[in-house]
């Protein structure tokens, strides 16, 4: 009987619950949205928002998500070029999105409350602090992090960077 318990325990801990749906979205995204709409019934008819993670690597994605959860990160930046290339509209006020960790697990629902197009070289210290989630040299850190990230994005589409880019 003792061996049977050990075997069952090993079988149970070796089984992994499948958390990804057929369309590649983690089940926690659906669960979070469902719970949110139960608490906010006026949104029940709204479609599942887009889900995404910050940046392009696990360390930064998870760190930025944690800063969002703690309330320190209150803004996000994107490259206007992305919208041009995709012939897509800029985000709209009131749009909700689900922030995930790098592996796709839902962590937070955010809402767009303002959209601005600001050239790279005109970003303010206050905005950088909201985006970076720190008040220690936020503009310096923002420029370094975003310049490096944007360099890779511009390179993908064969364009040169510009400090006047949006």
UniProtKB/TrEMBL annotation:
Residues 52-159 form the ASCH domain. InterPro entries: ASCH_domain, DUF984, PUA-like_sf. SUPFAM superfamilies: PUA domain-like (SSF88697). It comes from the Bacteria. SMART domains: ASCH. This is Uncharacterized protein YhfF.
């Amino acid at each position: 009987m003792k061996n049977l318990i050990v075997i069952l325990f090993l079988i149970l801990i070796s089984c992994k619950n499948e958390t990804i749906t057929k369309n590649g979205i983690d089940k926690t995204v659906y669960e979070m949205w469902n719970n949110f709409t139960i608490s906010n019934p006026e949104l029940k008819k709204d479609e599942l928002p887009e889900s995404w993670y910050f940046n392009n690597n696990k360390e930064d994605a998870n760190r930025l998500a944690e800063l969002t959860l703690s309330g320190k990160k209150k803004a996000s930046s994107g490259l206007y070029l992305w919208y041009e290339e995709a012939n897509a509209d800029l985000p709209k006020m009131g749009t909700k999105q689900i922030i995930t960790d790098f592996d796709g697990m839902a962590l937070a629902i955010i809402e767009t409350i303002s959209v601005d197009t600001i050239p790279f070289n005109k970003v303010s210290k206050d905005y950088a602090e909201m985006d970076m989630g720190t008040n220690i040299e936020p503009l310096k850190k923002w420029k370094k992090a975003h310049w490096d990230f944007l360099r890779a994005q511009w390179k993908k589409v064969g364009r040169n960077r510009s400090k006047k880019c949006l």
